[in-house]
Specification:
Blueprint lengths: L14 H14 L3 H28 L12 H10 L1
Length: about 80
C-alpha cells in the first residue's frame, strides 16, 4: 500500500465479522486495519476493472456496418507497404 495520508474512519461490524477479522489478523500477523484497507482496495479495484470492461464491451462494434468510413483493410495494406 502506498504511503498516502491516512484518515481515521469508524465502521460498524457485526460480532461475527469482528471475531473473524480478529482471527485473520492474529493468524496472518497483520493489523485489523491493514486487512480492512486491503479488502477495500480489492473491492475498489474489482469494481473499477469491471467498469472499464463494461465500457469496452459497450464500445465493441460501434463502428460495425458503417458505410461512411474508409476501407481500413486498404488503408492498412498501404501502410504495410511503406
Amino acid at each position: 500500500m502506498s504511503q498516502a495520508a491516512m484518515v481515521r474512519t469508524q465502521i460498524y461490524l457485526t460480532k461475527e465479522e469482528r471475531d473473524a477479522l480478529k482471527v485473520l489478523a492474529r493468524s496472518s500477523g497483520r493489523k485489523q486495519s491493514e486487512l480492512i484497507r486491503d479488502a477495500i482496495d480489492a473491492l475498489v479495484h474489482h469494481f473499477s476493472r469491471g467498469r472499464r470492461e463494461g465500457v469496452l464491451c459497450d464500445a465493441a462494434g460501434i463502428w460495425k456496418d458503417r458505410a461512411d468510413l474508409p476501407d481500413f483493410e486498404d488503408m492498412r495494406t498501404g501502410w504495410d507497404r511503406r
